[in-house]
Design a protein that fits this description.
- Keywords: Membrane, Transmembrane, Transmembrane helix.
- Pfam families: MFS_1.
- By secondary structure, this protein is mainly alpha-helical.
- The chain contains 17 helices and 2 strands.
- It has a two-stranded antiparallel sheet with strand order 1-2.
- The longest helix has 37 residues, at 309-345.
Amino acid sequence: MNKLRQEYLHFLSFPRDMQILLLTNLIYAFVLPVIDIFVGAYVMRNTQDVKMVVIYQLAVYTGIPFTFLVNGFLLQHIGIKRLYSAGMLLSGISMAVMMSLGKLSIMGIGVAGLMMGMSFGLFWANRDFLALSTTNDSNRNYYYGLETFFYTNTYVVVPVLIGWFIEGTGQWGWFGGDRVAAYQIVTAMVFLLTIFSSILIHRGNFENPPKSDFIYFRFHWLWNRMQLLAILKGLAQGYIVTAPAMLVMLLVGQEGALGTIQAVGGILSAFLLYFIGRTAKPKHRIMIFTIGLGLFVLGGLANALLFNATGVLIFMVCLLLGRPLHDIAYFPIQMQVIDTVSAIEHRNKFAYIFNQEFGFFIGRLAGCGLFILLANNISDTFALRYALLIIGIVQLLSIWMAKRILSGCGQLVPTREVLTPQSPDIILEKQAPGLLG
């Protein structure tokens, strides 16, 4: 209890806005596993077509960058707290639209996917800026470690509870044995959580980004490297969201098993990730990054070699630990680059958050495209078996790119503030290495 109290006091030592943002994300963390896992399972169960699941995901990914663009203009007139809460609420509405469809057609799935993409666009665009503006490089490992601790635990608890609830509906005849009714009840619970998290975010004193241009086409060379890293990250995102649901429904067959697999090793990994975020320094990010990507390859290899329930179990355990490790390292690197390049180019930081979404989009499109290409030209089974391994091996290039990015940040000495009698404005100057000492 004394140790818990110490951790709580450590949490309270950070700025109030950072605390509120973390607590809001904690509540919304109960929603994300439902969206990531069970919406895909719902489409799979009602269409029996893995390509329909990927089409839904493509619609989601198409809606995200479009909404990032719209969000940039809306921030000129609407408070960021309202836009952030609108994104959370829209995710619940999108699920409700999906569950209300009698028969899942390509058109219906496309509309529901676009709405979900719009909700993600509003959520992530504003969440990334708020995380950037309420943290600094020294506390970002802790921020993402604690946030990942929340997400990892909910990705363990929520799938178990909801998976067995949906499966129990069919086995024990709850609600007349109608699984669709069970999905609808889950959707209603999700909507209530989004309302609660939307109320909490309004307790913070968050400021909008400055009213300035945010659309640019030419950037500093360091940011171009960061975009290549974003494409490689998006490559896995394009397929990893739907892959677990498709593999489990095909090789294991029940939503309850889906939840149980998510629970294996999850609690242990959550505490490990919190410890890493609590103790790791910026110099450890490449090592964390490498371990996360290595686990992804290991899981993809197990799935490719075994392609049975055991292979899925190994893959899910590797993913449960590898994915958050990758994120703990990636996002602080991203924010360090934004801090560095925005000072050099004198641009709104939201411009970089907006621009990076297109890097993610290109990668996601390539990941989904790879799966569809393999499924159409070879077979669905081949795509499910080998696409993960192919993507994991390609992603190993991220380690080399991340090293080059951090090396570039080290060469660009942090900016300094220069005040002159003639101009009280702050002038940000790029300095050559070694000239500030």
